[in-house]
Amino acid sequence: MAKVIPHFQRFKTAEERFWEKVDKTAGCWVWTATTNKKGYGRFWNGERLVGAHRWAYERYVGPVPEGHMVLHRCDNPPCVRPDHLFLGGAIANAGDMMLKGRLSLCRVGASQFAGVSLHRRTINGRLYEYWRARISINGKPTHIGTFASELEAAAAYDEAAVRHGLQRRANLAEQETST
Ligand SMILES: [Zn+2]
Q1: Which residue of 26, 71, 121, 131 has the fewest C-beta atoms within 10 A of its own C-beta?
Q2: What is the mean pLDDT of each run of 10 residues along the chain (179 residues)?
Q3: Residue 28 C-alpha to ligand 1 middle, in angstroms?
């Protein structure tokens, strides 16, 4: 493992090549190499050019399911900080709605689960949706996270309720125990 390889013989790992192109500020971690027209970073993953933020998500958070896209919480396209990224699912046949800028980022609906709501955002002309979980702690609405599925958001709400010692009926346990 600790075998010393002369520098000129040594190939950098993808991780090394990636992070040397990133300027980590206190907030966003900004891609400093090639970007596309919209400002999204481009990274050579060893086989082809891919979105830098998407690469960071897949490498440090998890896989991106078919039909999903990696979105930015921070609305900063060159940012590759994994905890600023989240998944949204593509919505088919949303062409008309997309053209109305008002829909670009708005709450579109409540969920059957406590603390969960559905949101939408347009990226590169396509509409994506994602679920947000929030919980009220001492009367203050607190952001828990954004999720690709409603169930994940509901589970995160449950987890937050337990973590904060709140006596709430859990979203998912309630389903499992009802007969
Ligand atoms: Zn960011």
Answers
A1: 26
A2: 60 93 95 94 94 96 89 90 88 49 54 85 76 88 86 90 82 56
A3: 4
